[in-house]
Amino acid sequence: MSQRPIVRTFTLATAAALASLALSGCVPNTGADAGATTVDVKSSATECLVSTASAPSGSVVFAVTNTGDEETEFYLLGEDGKRVVGEVEHIGPGTSRDLAVTVPAGQYFTVCKPGMSGDGVGRTAFTVTK
């Protein structure tokens, strides 16, 4: 029995996997549509600076940069200040991550959690308009 069919199958499967990986790098992976509103966030050990206090309803991307010395998290909370609408975790010092959410008009809160524990810092009201 010849090994050729097995080798050919393996070669084709490998080529298909490599092509899939190459093509997947061609598309931005933000999770948001092209019309999304971007809100910049700077998180440190003591502050959570959000570039604006409002955004229009629809797709919103919170571009979170960790300017502190330890990992941080960022949350968008509902009007009650408890319900998590969206979160991004494990943002290392000196790195950035995006939180892409689709939100209806309403009142929200933003908060950063340096050290990824406790109640967080910089809890700020955030309004989503129609």
TrEMBL record:
Keywords: Signal. The keyword Signal applies. The keyword Signal applies. Residues 1-24 form the signal peptide. This is Uncharacterized protein. It comes from Terrimesophilobacter mesophilus.
